[in-house]
Specification:
Largest sheet: 8 strands, mixed
Strand order of the largest sheet: 6-7-8-3-9-10-12-11
Number of domains: 2
Mean pLDDT: 85
Distance between the termini: 33 Å
Oligomer: single chain
CATH topology of the largest domain: Rossmann fold
Helix content: 25-40%
Radius of gyration: 21 Å
Strand content: 15-25%
CATH architecture of the largest domain: 3-Layer(aba) Sandwich
Order of helices and strands: EEEHEEEHHHHEHEHEEHHEEHH
Low-confidence stretches: 315-343
């Protein structure tokens, strides 16, 4: 069952100099119950704007957002319709998303509805939610300042779960955590998705994290989604040069001594995007058609789409044009992490609970 549908979403802002900036252009994606979809790209590519449009924090200038069959309208001062409370958002920074002056249990209880929202059942349900995210029920009596970054993010997830959601949008939820905490929280998200049949939109600039957690991935560049597909297939055979570059930039702890390759150039000003394909100024494969025509996102292989001229003009087979070191790194990483990837978990460091 599809819980979230976003169709041809545009999000436009007006800067102080009155120049209109299109942060998102024609983006579409859908998420089913129990499915984790990763949205990846560099900072400034429009991921957070799309996330905010998904939950109604930003009103799209074009397109349609539907959650469980209901149109998602922009939030106002009025209370959100009860049907839309099952669509939740977890913010990037757990230090600022929790009120430091209120106990953790009080903040989680704010989202409780129905019988669990009544005073008699609140304490019990809050304790259950804290234990569900790997914390003690006694944590309800403490303040956010008494927890580590990873623990605060678990509290933020528990607060989102209080509304009994069918989908949670997570905007860079691991970015402010250390590596060990990132792995533990990522594993928690996988477990919650499986146990609760919970849909997740996981937004991250880190393709390696998404690879270990998401069933499908959408790659975003300068406001446009340029490639989509099952995560493992996108990782092993990227169709878009930008996806290839993101994978090449992932550090490879395989002992080979190969350094990750940084993507050349900077992301252009979204208020003045390049003509034609938006990626062509940084693309090592560009040819005469690229600066003149902008490719639409079209089917390439089963369950794959790509917005690039190269796969269409080349022989229709998995992209052998991938750089050799990228393929070699993928092979090495697949062999070293295959067991954890098969189980949908990330390897964690031994130590305290994040």
């Amino acid at each position: 069952m599809t819980v979230l549908e976003m169709e041809n979403i545009d999000v436009t802002y007006e800067r102080r100099d009155h120049v209109k900036l299109k942060a998102v252009v024609g983006a579409s994606l859908s998420i089913d119950r129990g499915q984790i979809v990763g949205l990846v790209g560099e900072s400034g590519c429009g991921k957070s704007s799309l996330a905010r449009a998904a939950v109604g924090l930003v009103a799209p200038t074009a397109g349609r957002v539907r959650f469980e069959g209901e149109d998602v309208a922009a939030l106002t001062r009025r209370a959100r319709p009860r049907a839309l409370t099952r669509l939740q958002l977890v913010f990037q920074n757990p230090y600022s998303s929790l009120n430091p002056r209120r106990r953790v249990g009080e903040q989680i209880a704010d989202g409780l509805t129905g019988d669990s929202g009544r005073r008699a059942g609140r304490s019990r349900r809050v304790g259950e939610l804290l234990e569900l995210v790997g914390l003690s029920a006694a944590a309800a009596q403490r303040y956010p300042s008494q927890f580590s970054g990873g623990q605060r993010q678990r509290i933020a997830i528990a607060r989102a779960l209080a509304a009994d959601p069918s989908l949670i949008v997570l905007d860079e939820p691991l970015a402010s955590l250390d590596a060990s905490a990132q792995a533990q929280v990522a594993n928690l998200l996988v477990e919650l998705s499986r146990e609760l049949s919970l849909g997740l939109l996981l937004i991250s600039h880190d393709l390696a994290i998404v690879r270990h957690t998401a069933h499908a991935v959408s790659v975003m560049y300068l406001g446009r989604i340029v490639e989509t597909g099952p995560t493992r297939e996108v990782w092993s055979a990227p169709l878009h040069p930008y996806t290839e570059a993101l994978i090449a930039a992932v550090p490879r702890p395989d002992g080979s001594g190969t350094m990750p390759e940084a993507l050349p150039g900077e992301v252009p000003d979204p208020a003045r995007p390049p003509t034609g394909c938006r990626f062509h100024p940084r693309c090592p494969y560009r040819f005469s058609r690229c600066p003149e025509e902008e490719p639409e996102l079209e089917p390439a292989f089963p369950a794959r789409t790509v917005g690039c001229w190269l796969p269409r003009d080349a022989t229709p087979s998995p992209p052998s044009r991938r750089r050799a070191h990228t393929a070699a790194a993928t092979t090495t990483n697949d062999s070293s992490t295959s067991s954890s990837h098969e189980e949908g978990v990330m390897p964690t460091h031994k130590g305290g609970t994040a």
